[in-house]
Amino acid sequence: MNRLIRERRLRARLFGEGLFADPAWDMLLDLARARIEDQGVSVTSLCHASGVPPTTALRWIRLLERRDLIAREHDRQDRRRSFVVLTPGAAEAMERYLAELG
After folding, report:
1. Cα(42)–Cα(44) distance, rounded to whole angstroms?
2. Which of 35, 46, 71, 99 sits at 20 to 30 Å (Cα–Cα) from 65?
3. What tens-digit pLDDT sequence spans the chain (102 residues)?
4. Kind and range of the H or E element at 8?
């Protein structure tokens, strides 16, 4: 998982930001990584992982929510903050994707 994320960042660094923009996929990769590492991902962090401006990232987050690929969960320690997680169906699809990659 981390290899996929590093490869995408290297590509952006070498060829420039925006040329290979795929914010939804970058978000799903980051959420899959966080799930494997048992880490929380805040909305702000997910916006950063997308590689696009925050307003654009928030639009993608809403689209992924409407497609039932991600969900927001309130932070148990700070109810003002929420974390974003893969839905069970999206988590299963990411696991299948990674398994097929080998």
Report:
1. 5
2. 99
3. 788 888 877 877 788 776 777 899 999 999 999 999 999 999 999 999 998 899 999 999 999 999 999 999 988 888 888 899 999 999 999 999 989 887
4. helix 2-15
